[in-house]
Amino acid sequence: MIPFLYGLVCLIWGSTWLAIKLGLEGVPPFLGAALRFTLAAAILWGLVFFAGLSPRLTPRGRRAALIAGVLGFGFCYALVYWAETRVATGLVAVLCAVAPLVTALLTAFVAHTETLTARKAAGISIGIGGVVLLFWPRDGVAAADTLGLLAAFVSSVGAAGNLVAQSLWSKQDDARVLNAWSMSLGAALLLALSWAFEQDAIIIWSPANIGAILYLAIVGSVIAFLAYYKLIRAMPATQVSMITLIFPVVAVLLGRIVLDESLTGNALLGIGLIIGGVAMTLLRRRENSRAS
């Protein structure tokens, strides 16, 4: 079940890169993200109601929901959506690829829940190198928007911190209730940002951006995050964070299959490095134990 959920999350989030781009055509970034999580929160509250679940959270769950709402769904997604209006999607993926390294450092030296082994560090480094090779722009980083690059990087660091927090405090509460509260809080924050900075924005609705927002809310948020929280409860945080290295590969492969985009030699080498790095981190070395 866990490998299926891992693959499902990678597949879904690998497809959201294109959906976010489509959703931002005619819709300002903060409003687009706010609509996504408002709809997702409404669906989750419906699931909570029909399942007869209590909306109350444990003290640890309230802490997890607050961090996920403000940092994860609010702050981080505001930065990601805003960055995608200024920086190429592939370069955003390169900067988001530092999340596993940040997660590994936080779990080893701050939360003290995991050990940063040489094997794990090597796998993460190889995977990040593969993402850089896969998406590095021909004109280099200097040709990109500096603030957009900074926003993508900060969002990656924040997402890693949120993942560590969820791995510590979210395991006692139902994922539907926890995500309903978190997404409601994140949506409120995003709506406030939209009201503060996007009042003069011109909104042009189209079937493409409406469909993208619906897809991101239902599939990219409700389904993906419920599966993601099951992974958090079953796997170490660093292994879960390796998803951020895999879904750029999914995005490239979908572009090849759906849009008939070509794959360069660098892209194929990058994909190979990513798969190898993730495998080094996820696959545990077999250890033979002897009875004393």
Description:
The chain contains twelve helices and no strands. It has 292 residues and is mainly α.
Distance between the termini: 35 Å
Radius of gyration: 19 Å
* Strand residue percentage: under 5%
Number of domains: 1
**Which parts are unreliable, with pLDDT below 50 for 5 consecutive residues or more?**
285-292
Mean pLDDT over all positions: 88
Number of strands: 0
Quick one: biggest sheet?
Answer: none
Could you say which overall geometry the principal axes of the C-alpha atoms support?
A: globular
Helix vs. strand class: mainly alpha
User: Percent helix among the residues?
Assistant: over 70%
Secondary-structure element order, N to C: HHHHHHHHHHHH
Write a short abstract of this structure.
75% of the residues lie in helices and 0% in strands. It has helices at residues 2-23, 29-50, 59-83, 89-96, 99-109, 118-135, 146-169, 175-197, 207-234, 237-241, 243-258, 265-282. Mean pLDDT is 88; it is low at 285-292.
Any key phrases for this structure?
globular, 75% helix, mainly alpha, disordered C terminus, 292 residues
